[in-house]
Inverse folding.
């Protein structure tokens, strides 16, 4: 049991990534540039010390492809050595490292070449996975190819979701500026890529990546993490099952065919009517991310993923955006109660990772959403544990005996 983090969101200075370019354009959808983030690239020991002090025995983290392969085919030994030191220190502190190869950000050159819209991207990713597996795999306790490769499909079903991005008057100028800056004819990042072209290539890349990870150093479970919220059908003719079939099922079947586990990342529920997601009712208790405050969704999502795939479940993200830390404590308590009910049904849940350790960069929303158990001063980078971090540690002590590392 532990916390989840992501390289681009906490490390800072990820200048070779597609996200860095988009964040820093004069006209951009991003609220803030990531900048120095939490400076975790240099302060990783402090962050690992805090994770261990909370009482965790595992750390979900990502490594940054943009640092490891800053130019196509040119791998940085120094970057690989850096992540080796991070992994070694985590193990020294008693933390089992679960590593994501991609957590939303890609090398700038990769996005400029068309990203996962291009069929050859699957082999490019596999070559990266192979290099990482050979250099670092003996340090992994587990690995995932991608973080939430279905996230755009999830957003598509949200009222004004994907259209709210692509129809934004800043979208096309941002995309054109990125193409001009990189000499690209189709800059395809997470935000600017075409999901219809991206999905099949990413699925093939996942399959090749699993093979590469299994062929490297060390032996560890390999899988993929998926965004899965509870979908509650409302009324006759509701589209809840159709939504699940479009948004979750293709990747769940891919995970079942290629991999050892499914990572479930749950934040809320949706109520789905005949026309799609229903608007939230007036007075609905919301998080600062605009989701319904509904920690109980975890029970339904792990049951659905386990039943669909027959694979062990790793809860790789679960948490809340809030400035009121007492609400985070309440969320944790109710999420654990929901998880207990799922496990009482016999569902094979192997881990729980809270999102996230630090208040950090939240993509298009910049630094406006606080998911962290630990506050970070934006000027000094001072870390301050919130009461929820201590409470989470107490919950871990009660629960960790029931989980396998």
């Amino acid at each position: 049991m532990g916390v989840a983090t992501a390289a681009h969101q906490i490390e800072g200075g990820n200048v070779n990534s597609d996200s860095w370019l988009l964040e820093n354009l004069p006209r951009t959808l991003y609220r803030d540039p990531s900048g120095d983030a939490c400076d975790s690239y240099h302060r990783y020991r402090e962050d690992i010390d805090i994770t261990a002090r909370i009482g965790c025995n595992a750390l979900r983290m990502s490594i940054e492809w943009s640092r490891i392969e800053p130019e196509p085919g040119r791998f940085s030994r120094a970057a690989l050595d850096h992540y080796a030191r991070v992994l070694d220190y985590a193990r020294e502190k008693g933390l089992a490292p679960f590593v994501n190869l991609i957590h939303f950000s890609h090398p700038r050159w990769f996005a400029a070449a068309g990203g996962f819209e291009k069929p050859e991207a699957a082999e490019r990713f596999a070559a990266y996975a192979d290099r990482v597996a050979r250099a670092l795999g003996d340090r992994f306790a587990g690995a995932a190819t991608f973080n939430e490769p279905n996230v755009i499909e999830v957003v598509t079903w949200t009222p004004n979701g994907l259209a709210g991005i692509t129809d934004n008057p800043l979208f096309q100028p941002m995309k054109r500026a990125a193409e001009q800056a990189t000499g690209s004819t189709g800059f395809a990042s997470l935000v600017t890529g075409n999901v219809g072209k991206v999905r099949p290539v990413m699925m093939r890349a996942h399959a090749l990546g699993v093979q590469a990870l299994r062929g490297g150093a060390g032996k560890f479970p390999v899988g993929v993490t998926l965004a899965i919220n509870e979908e509650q059908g409302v009324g006759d003719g509701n589209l809840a099952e159709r939504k699940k079939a479009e948004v979750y099922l293709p990747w769940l079947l891919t995970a079942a065919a290629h991999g050892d586990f499914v990572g479930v990342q749950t934040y809320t529920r949706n109520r789905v009517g005949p026309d799609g997601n229903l608007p939230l009712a007036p007075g609905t208790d919301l998080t600062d991310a605009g989701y319904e405050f509904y920690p109980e969704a975890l029970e339904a999502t792990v049951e659905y993923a386990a039943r669909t795939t027959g694979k062990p479940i790793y809860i790789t993200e679960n948490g809340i955006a809030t400035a009121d830390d007492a609400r985070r404590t309440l969320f944790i308590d109710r999420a654990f109660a929901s998880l207990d009910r799922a496990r009482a049904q016999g569902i094979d849940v192997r881990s729980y990772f809270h999102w996230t350790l630090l208040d950090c960069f939240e993509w298009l929303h910049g630094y406006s959403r606080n998911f962290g158990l630990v506050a970070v001063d934006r000027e000094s980078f001072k870390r301050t544990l919130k009461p929820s971090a201590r409470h989470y540690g107490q919950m871990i002590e009660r629960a960790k005996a029931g989980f396998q590392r």
Observations:
- The first strand starts at residue 2 and ends at 4.
- The chain has a mean pLDDT of 96.
- The longest helix spans residues 195-214.
- Residues 2-402 form a domain with the TIM Barrel fold (CATH 3.20.20.80).
